[in-house]
Design a protein that fits this description.
This protein has 11 helices and 20 strands. By secondary structure, the chain is an alpha/beta fold. The chain has 2 domains: 313 residues, Alpha-Beta Complex (Adenylosuccinate Synthetase, Chain A, domain 3); 97 residues, Orthogonal Bundle (Adenylosuccinate Synthetase, subunit A, domain 2), CATH 1.10.300.10. Helix 5 runs antiparallel to helix 6. The mean pLDDT is 95. The structure holds inosinic acid (IMP).
Length: 433
Amino acid sequence: MPLDLIIGAQWGDEGKGRITDLLAAEADIVARYSGGDNAGHTITVGEQIFKLHLIPSGIVHPHTICLLGSGMVVNPAILLGEIDHLGSLGVDVSPQRLKLSSAAHVLTPAHIALDAAEETRRSGDMLGTTRRGIGPAYKDKAARSGLRLGAMRRPEDFASQVQEHMQAAGEVLERIYGFDSPDPDEVAGIYCDYAKRLRPYLTDVGGHVAQALEDGATVLGEGAQGTLLDLDHGTYPFVTSSYPTTPGALLGLGVGPKHLRRIIGVTKAFQTRVGSGPFPTEVFDETAERLRGTGENPWDEFGTTTGRPRRVGWLDCVLLRYAVRVNGFTELALTKLDILTGLDPLKLCAAYRQEEDRHKDLPDGPADLSPFTPEYNELPGWHNDLWEARHWDDLPPEAQNYIGRVEELTKLKVKLISVGPEREQVIRRDIEA
Ligand code: IMP
């Protein structure tokens, strides 16, 4: 009967996919609840690397049912591409295993074109979106003019709705932005075919989750993006257009909090960000090169969805404490600890300075971080390779000390620690005595 949530505590890319992969082994249902294909999860299973944007990472575990919740915006072309790709690798992606909320919204080529047009117009003030059409799709949802997946149950009617939507969006694209727009009839025809393929997958996800919880199932909510990209609680306007936080998970799944058990905040051992916006602990020197990597390894800090180099910096525990507050985390998962190996000393932001003032917590949310300078704790680094560590006692004292300081600052236990890219390279303090 428990509902466990995996939530990004930073600006996304925290390694939620691998934590989901770990806990999916013990879950019956894995559900995405917000965002769209702006997310990118890389799962390594033996020799195979899966890159997923919409389908929950839990799909690689044959026993799970995977759901896409109502809080999502779904590009059917991407979804069908993933279904076909996974199917070709022998993964069962039948409607018995994969279910889509009828209340999730449909993302179209017009949304993608509008995303590009809006970014171009912002020019120097670009948000740095993933250009997947996310903002415009949620804009239509909020304006109550969006198309929901449920409309795919009647493909011919759905096609006319798509046609009308493309026509209306085309006028905006051409007249306001001077952009070419995709042909409405052509898109409507393609979307009619998508509807025929996707309608068997449609269901009432909220009802399904609620019933499963009543029946004793374990449901895992798989977050995308992160707390600081939350539309209400992130570094607005440099945010996404959905709610990647705990309240957003409940909203996007369609269930109340009654069954909540673990709310796991996932944070990297350092800080990264793609796109524009404030980043108080950002670094640019050789430490940045060390944290980011060259791009040669799959775990280097280059976007899964966009390929963009990520901005990198020291772990910011002021923002992490904020994420703990917003989400009500019950524990933390710390990923990529191994990347800190060889960096000595290590720095950790414990508070912000603003002239004579010292803030352990944000005085007024994270939207404007410009008045603050990070106050760092300097901690000794370690030089031993961590890749073989499987237990807390395998970690060098300096690594234990680093994690201990994070725990002190957040008042939460770090229960999962990843020390390398492979499935088994993780220290599980949630099951250790
Ligand atoms: P959008 O979600 O494409 O509208 O982009 C808005 C902001 O969120 C941009 O700064 C993106 O780089 C960021 N963003 C969106 N999705 C992700 C993600 O999965 N990981 C990291 N950043 C993301």
